[in-house]
Specification:
This protein is mostly helical. It contains three helices and no strands. The protein has helices at about 1-5, 10-30, 40-75. The protein is elongated and about 60 Å long.
């Protein structure tokens, strides 16, 4: 089991980085969802929340995967550049 973790530590770190980035982006995105009706009409509020939800469910996983993919890429390209 130790050998498996030694051989795949980059993937585990990248997965943890994905989870942390996703949670951070979720908290940022959820701040933009308005649950109050004080400033806008109900219809405008629903349209605004739908736009935010579309971003939240469709674009957020791609945005969270970018740091993980860059980490994996740097992990595989880094050791090969040593001369």
């Amino acid at each position: 089991m130790k050998d498996w973790f030694r051989n795949h530590y980059r993937v585990l770190i990248a997965f943890a980085l994905f989870i942390v980035t996703y949670l951070l982006l979720c908290s940022i995105c959820s701040d933009y969802i308005e649950f109050e009706k004080s400033r806008r009409t109900y219809r405008a509020l629903v349209e605004f929340n739908l736009k935010v939800a579309k971003f939240y469910f469709l674009q957020l996983p791609f945005g969270a995967s970018v740091p993980s993919l860059l980490y994996i890429l740097s992990g595989y390209l880094g050791p090969k550049s040593n001369h």
